[in-house]
Amino acid sequence: MTYTVKKGDTMDKIAKSMNMPLSDLLASNPQMENPDMIQVGDTVYMPGEQQTAPPALSGWCSFVLDIVNNRVPEPGVSLVQFPVRKHVFVATMGMPPPSQFGSQYDIYTAWIASSVSPPAIKDFFDLIPTVEDGFWSNHKNIPSLQTTDFVLVTPETRGHGAGPVNPVVVVQGSLANCCRKGT
Prior knowledge:
The protein is mostly beta strands. The protein has 2 domains: about 1-45, Roll (Membrane-bound Lytic Murein Transglycosylase D, Chain A); about 60-175, Immunoglobulin-like. It contains 2 helices and 11 strands. The longest helix has 7 residues, at about 10-15. The model has no long low-confidence stretch (mean pLDDT about 85).
């Protein structure tokens, strides 16, 4: 049996509702890097449940970068190549100028993270504005890329460091949602 995390859930609350020790529930979920940071929609495995590994990705796949808190009018998209190159392409459309989020911001940055809250940044690349207003895109090989990683896009200042300065995420998505035509 599995359980899908709902708003307000904690691992402790889930264990109590299932009438089991928290330690048993945690032992059945070694995939959770930080069980204090579960997200709505996460799958929690019950003791004795056989976990199935996510399907291996091979070739190109895509996923939507969902709008966060209605901060921008349009979602983005990511195109990812596995397993050889581990290449990530990110494109956004309908984006307001980054300065809308603070006068110091002049670019959008795509962050590759192993977790969202708090962000555990693995790599990044700045998006480049295209000829069409509101469209930003770029791509990069990410050798450490995993199918469990996330893509987060934030407005930033050119020359920023290896972590987001701005905590405002405008779009985000999970490589776990990568799909191909016909799947």
